[in-house]
Every structure is written in structure tokens, then in C-alpha cells.
Design goal:
2% of the residues lie in helices and 53% in strands. It has 1 helix and 63 strands. The protein is globular. The two termini are 35 Å apart.
């Protein structure tokens, strides 16, 4: 863990010093719903990295339509409403305070970045005007000054190799949960008056999540996991904070055969009726769906389960207002349940918010995105700074790949369940053909009328010349670490060698091979022209040149570079550079010849610093653009072109808009000619690293002043859109 943090710090440090050619342009938005809160006829949702508000008041219809959207880089983990403010914990983006007096148009008040590099903000709690943030490796206290904040102190730290994931405060007592495999796993109680640890209640499970205090009593409700797929919810009586005692426990059943964990994750307390979201929590005797569990905790001596409320399948959070419960669901987005009769709840339907992002592919002006349990989506990216959703295909079956045919007329998808390969027309998304069996669980590369697909220890070659009857024409047994295509050549890496096949026409002939020494393995790779970049364990990044001497090919080592961060998760290359994505460090751009760093984009990074399971899913280059596929943060479009802002495709027409001064120090003034006033204009500002700094409506005025005094020095991109169309982009230097 410490080595990873050091590398991450070094990465950020050097990227800040280096030239940044890697510009964030835009991204797809929305994903499965993971957090949800109600305020004044609206529900606010964290759908992956996207914050949205939906109107659910009088006259609403299901499914609801969102009225506000804001994209973070990181995944939104938890949210809290306090007075007329919404507080959002968004992993590596830290915590953001929003004024939601007008829920249809929230205003960002301030954001608190993680206290130190690489820290993940997990949860928040409040004591008066002090905000306490669980930042994985510490709890930090901040003074809320209204429109700004002041760091007070670090309150506490977990034991070595532990993480703080949940936090709540009542009176002067701070309760927080720690996950720590060494035995100090459990609940800690601390006196905030003198910052003294009062007690520790040890738990045998391997995951600790959130905690929530009772309202009219001294009970503390704890959400945790076990060493199996079962979840564990229990209640402590903290009348004596130095000696808390367990007064209730409930084991939450998981999906059988280890398919889903039943981890109690979030809870909401309504006058000591406790609603608990349990991820994949099941109900005894019913394995068809998952449930919110509701407990009566009004009597300290008689905490008990009231009932199970429908939550669809995998779910993460809920919020309750009067007779309605809104569930944050992975598969169903927002599930609305009428709980006017707690013993006979009524499911009122779903509002799909999107699915997790598994893969993407681009062809011409179009982008196809595979959204796991939500099928796939088709976007228009003719203006890559303003992506437009065209169609959605919600066919069942867990979509893991979505790739265009070589001519763009069809979209091929791979799926976990029935019909392992499907073929759709790209104009209508009507399905034309399929292969019943599984064909892929790794790389999926389209070349001409063939697809080269990894399935376990096989290379499947799929003939799609007839889109109504695709067929696996052959399967070759081989170990595959990675594959890449370039100049009618298929490159395959494994632990023993790098193999190059001629795949022109209907060929599949090996034309060159490089054997690996016994202690070296060829891993991730990227090809551009006759250049091949391969990460080789115990050696580094190797650049090869594929030579052709009258039809006799040879793969010759050109140079080797040491990579301090080790093997990249994914690699890609185009004419502007070599790109390496790391789940814990971000996306880096390098010069192809010298490997000097030329750009950096932070990305959403891994999931709460737990594992390498989530984060970046793929990385590829098409049409002189870079496409970054992230599980929670969707697909981002970037450019590695240092002259991007000046190329003709994106030259801005004269709009009568000016920004001054530039460079600037304290304020930027935006002036719009009276003849050019817009009907629905927004200002969006990104840092050079692609982080969204500001998004606000531009009132119907000719002059707007923006306070930049707290932004820090660097390059910022100001973008003005009208009715979702970019009309002006300006690069501003802040001194």
C-alpha cells in the first residue's frame, strides 16, 4: 500500500511539471444507481460518476426524467442531505457541498479534495458546523464556513493496513468502522470533546461498512460482511460508550453459489425505524429478488425485523419520504415502492439510469458502449466535446463487448448468458443473427469479416461475412495474455513468446515469433504501423519494429524503457503518442520514441482502494481520439493532439464572446455581444487534467464575472454551450 501511494504521488508530481497534451473532451454519463437521497419533491442520485436530480412530486410519472446532471471523474459513493444542502462523497474527487434550494438547478458551493494524494472519501458525518470525512486512511475534520471551509485536524487513523469506511456522530460520540484483516476489524467509539478512543468492538467479518446512530436512544446500528456471501447487521447498546454491548444481530442471506454478496451497506433512520440496503441480500424462501430489510429499533431491549421490502436485485441505498421508498438499484436504477402499508409494499416500477461500463468502440461519428446488464448504447460523437445519445438496446444477457463491423453497418456484442455473440444493424439496432454459445471472455478484435476472440485458452476466429448467420470458423488452442491488430497483422502475447500472424484476406499464417526467456512474460501490448509496444515482466516496456524483407518478417527489439509503476492495465497508441492506463494511478501519455511524458489525465481510478477489480476496463485510439473505458466513470473521449484546439474541425465560429484578462489571477470576465445572447447557455470549466472545475448557467446578460482566486495556477479550458451545443472554447492561464 505505501509503495503504491509513493508511486502515485510521484506520478502526480511529474505530471504537474510536464507538458500536458492529453486533453479531456467529454464523456458519456449515467450508470447503475448507487446512492440516492430525497429533498423537496426531488431525488438525487449517484449513477456511477454522474450526479442527477429527478422530479418525483405531484404530477410525476414513472419512469422519472432527470432535470439536472453533473459529472464527476470518480464514482459517487455516498450522499447526505442536511438543511438545504447536499453533500456528495465521490471517491477520489473528495466531498462536494451543493446548495439545493432549487433542486432542479443545484449550485456547487465548495469541494473538499482528499486530505492527501490518493485518498478516497468514503462517508461523512456532522457535528454542528464541523464536517467529518472518512478518507480511507483517516478521519478529517473541516470547519464549514458557509461558502468555504477550513481544515481543522486529522481526528483519527485506522490500525496498520486498515481502512475507515463508515462514520456517524451523535452528541460528542464519533462512531466509525474499520476493515482490517489483522484482527482489529470492527467498530470504534471516540469522544470528540477530547479526541480520546473510548472503546473498540471487534467483528469477525472481513468487510465493515456504514454505521448509523439511533435517534431517541443510544443504539448504534452497524453494517458488515462475513467470510461468506452472507451479510451481517447488528446493533450495539452504547449507553456506556466504554463498554458497548450487542443487543441484536441478523444474518442476511446472499445469492446462492456465491453469485452475489449480501453486504449491508447503507441505512436510513426514520424515528428509529431502520431501513437497510443489503447489496445482494435475499429473503428466506424467496431467491427471485433482493430486499431492503426494515427493523424496529425504538425499544433498546427489543430490536426486531419488521418486514422485507422489494429492492429488485443488487442494491446499494434507499431513501424514504412519507409513503414512498426510492431504492438505488444496480439493475433497475431507481425503484419506487409504496410503503404506506409496510406489511404489503407495492412495487411501482423502475427508472433506468444506465449500467456499468464494460467496453466501447468507435466508428466514424458513432460510439457503441457495452453497459453490462443494460445491453448497449449508441452515441453520436461527430462533435466529441458534445456527445449525443441516439439509441439504447436493453436486450438481456450481460453485454461485455460492443464492437462495430469493419464498415460500421453492424454492431457485434458478446454476452454472458444466452446468445454469446449477437449481431445488430447499427442504424436500427435490430438484431440480425447470433451464435448460441459463449465466444469470448477476453479481447475481442474485429478485422474485415472476421473477429478474433479470446475464450479461456482458445483463440476463436468468427466468420461474420453473413451477419444473419455468424459462425466460429475455427478455434486455436493457445495461451493469450493480450492481442493487438495493425497493418493486417495480429499480434499475440503470452508467457512464452510474441507471435505475429498475417490476417490479410482469409489468411491466418504465423510470419514471425519472438521467444521470451524463462523469467520474462509478454503482457499488455499496443500496435501502430510497424511499431509494437509490449510490457515484458522483469524487463520493462519494449518497443519492437516489425521488418518486412521481401515477405520475410522479423520482429526486432528497438528500445527498452523501465516503468517505475510496473505493468499498465491497458495500453494504446496513435500518431500523437503512447498511452498507458493504470487503475490506481491514472492515464499517462508518452512520446513514442523517447517515452518522455507528454500528458496526464487522472481517471476515476480504482474502486475505493480495495482491489484492482474495477476502474479502467479498456483503452483504445480511433479517429485521432483516445477512448478511456471505466467501469463506474463510463467512456471518456480525450485528445493527445497538442494542437487540438486549433485544428479545423473544432475551430469556433465568431460568436462575439470574449474572455479577459488572459492570463488572469483573481477574476475572469466573460463578455457576450448583445446580438449573441443565448437562450440556454452554460459555462463549463475543466482543468488541464480533465477535472470538472465549474458548471453554471449563464444568465441573459452581456457580462459575467468568475472568481478564480482559489483555483490555483495552471491551464483551464472554458467552454460555453447553448442548448447542448458548444459555441466557444477558450484556454485560460491562471497565474
Amino acid at each position: 500500500m505505501r509503495n503504491i501511494l509513493i508511486l502515485l504521488f510521484v506520478s502526480f508530481y511529474f505530471s504537474a511539471l510536464s507538458q500536458n497534451n492529453l486533453q479531456f473532451l467529454s464523456a458519456t454519463t449515467g450508470a447503475a444507481c448507487q446512492s440516492i437521497k430525497y429533498y423537496n419533491n426531488y431525488v438525487f442520485t449517484g449513477t456511477g460518476s454522474t450526479l442527477r436530480s429527478y422530479y418525483v412530486g405531484a404530477g410525476h410519472t414513472t419512469p422519472y426524467q432527470y432535470v439536472f446532471e453533473y459529472r464527476y471523474i470518480s464514482q459517487i459513493i455516498r450522499m447526505t442531505v442536511k438543511d438545504h444542502y447536499l453533500y456528495v462523497a465521490a471517491n477520489y474527487d473528495g466531498m462536494t457541498k451543493w446548495d439545493i434550494s432549487n433542486p432542479a438547478l443545484p449550485v456547487k458551493v465548495f469541494e473538499i479534495l482528499p486530505d492527501s494524494t490518493g485518498m478516497s472519501t468514503q462517508a461523512m458525518a456532522f457535528k454542528g458546523d464541523t464536517i467529518f470525512l472518512a478518507q480511507f486512511s483517516k478521519v478529517c475534520a473541516y470547519k464549514d464556513l458557509g461558502n468555504s471551509f477550513l481544515k481543522i485536524s486529522n481526528v483519527c487513523f485506522p490500525p496498520l493496513f486498515g481502512s475507515i469506511n463508515g462514520i456517524d456522530i451523535k452528541d460528542n460520540l464519533l462512531a466509525y468502522t474499520v476493515t482490517q484483516v489483522g484482527g482489529q476489524n470492527g467498530v470504534y467509539i471516540r469522544d470528540l470533546n477530547n479526541n480520546v478512543l473510548l472503546s473498540f468492538y471487534q467483528v469477525g467479518g472481513f468487510l465493515m461498512e456504514n454505521v448509523i446512530w439511533g435517534i431517541n436512544n443510544n443504539l448504534l446500528h452497524v453494517m458488515a460482511g462475513t467470510n461468506t456471501v452472507e451479510g451481517y447487521f447488528f446493533t450495539l447498546d452504547v449507553s456506556n460508550p466504554a463498554l458497548p454491548s450487542k443487543v441484536f444481530e441478523d444474518t442476511v442471506l446472499g445469492v446462492p453459489y456465491g453469485l452475489a454478496m449480501a453486504l449491508p451497506y447503507n441505512a436510513e433512520n426514520h424515528n428509529d425505524t431502520i431501513y437497510v440496503a443489503n447489496w445482494g441480500g435475499m429473503k428466506p424462501g424467496d431467491l427471485t429478488t433482493c430486499y431492503i430489510r426494515v427493523y424496529d429499533a425504538s425499544d433498546t431491549s427489543d430490536v426486531h425485523l419488521i418486514n422485507y421490502l422489494p429492492a429488485g436485485l443488487w442494491h446499494f441505498d434507499m431513501t424514504v419520504h412519507n409513503t414512498k421508498m426510492y431504492v438505488a438499484s444496480e439493475w433497475y436504477g431507481i425503484k419506487t415502492v409504496d410503503v404506506s402499508d409496510m406489511m404489503n409494499p407495492v412495487d411501482e416500477g423502475n427508472t433506468l439510469t444506465g449500467g456499468w461500463n464494460i467496453s466501447s468502440d468507435a466508428w466514424g461519428n458513432y460510439l457503441a458502449v457495452a453497459n453490462e446488464g443494460y445491453g448497449f448504447k449508441l452515441y453520436n460523437i461527430s462533435d466529441p466535446q458534445n456527445i449525443q445519445l441516439i439509441k439504447v438496446k436493453n436486450d438481456p444477457g450481460f453485454c461485455f463487448n460492443a464492437c462495430f463491423s469493419h464498415d460500421g453497418q453492424y454492431i457485434y456484442t458478446t454476452n454472458l448468458t444466452y446468445q454469446g455473440l449477437r449481431v445488430y444493424r447499427s442504424d436500427s439496432l435490430i438484431q440480425t443473427g447470433f451464435i448460441q454459445a459463449a465466444v469470448c471472455n477476453g479481447r475481442f478484435l474485429v478485422h474485415g469479416n472476421r473477429i478474433f476472440s479470446k475464450l479461456d485458452n482458445k483463440l476463436n476466429i468468427i466468420d461474420v461475412s453473413n451477419p444473419y448467420a455468424p459462425v466460429v470458423s475455427s478455434s486455436v488452442t493457445m495461451t493469450i495474455n493480450d492481442m493487438a491488430l495493425g497493418n493486417d497483422k495480429l499480434f499475440i502475447s503470452n508467457n512464452d513468446s510474441i507471435m505475429i500472424y498475417d490476417v490479410s484476406g482469409s489468411n491466418f499464417n504465423i510470419v514471425a515469433l519472438v521467444s521470451m526467456p524463462f523469467n520474462q512474460d509478454a503482457k499488455m501490448m499496443a500496435a501502430y504501423g510497424n511499431e509494437l509496444f509490449v510490457f515484458v515482466t522483469n524487463k520493462g516496456l519494449v518497443k519492437y519494429i516489425l521488418n518486412n524483407n521481401g515477405g520475410n518478417y522479423s520482429l526486432v527489439e528497438d528500445n527498452t524503457f523501465a516503468l517505475s509503476m510496473g505493468p499498465p492495465t491497458f495500453m494504446a497508441v496513435d500518431s500523437f503518442g503512447l498511452y498507458m492506463a493504470y487503475r490506481k494511478n491514472g492515464l499517462f501519455q508518452y512520446n513514442r520514441n523517447t517515452l518522455s511524458q507528454t500528458g496526464f489525465y487522472r481517471t476515476g481510478l480504482d474502486y475505493r482502494k480495495y482491489t484492482d477489480m474495477y476502474g479502467v476496463q479498456n483503452l483504445f485510439c480511433k479517429n485521432s481520439l483516445v477512448f478511456l473505458v471505466e467501469y463506474f466513470s463510463q467512456t471518456s473521449i480525450l485528445s493527445g493532439n497538442p494542437n487540438f484546439a486549433t485544428i479545423s474541425t473544432f475551430e469556433q465560429k465568431k460568436t462575439g464572446i470574449s474572455f479577459y484578462p488572459n492570463p488572469a489571477k483573481d477574476f475572469i470576465t466573460i463578455k457576450i455581444g448583445a446580438q449573441n445572447l443565448f437562450s440556454n447557455a452554460y459555462l463549463t470549466v475543466h482543468s488541464a487534467q480533465g477535472k470538472l472545475i465549474l458548471r453554471k448557467p449563464l444568465q441573459n446578460t452581456t457580462e459575467t464575472e468568475i472568481d478564480i482566486s482559489r483555483w490555483g495556477t495552471g491551464v483551464y479550458f472554458f467552454s460555453i454551450s447553448d442548448n447542448n451545443r458548444i459555441v466557444k472554447v477558450e484556454k485560460i492561464i491562471v497565474e
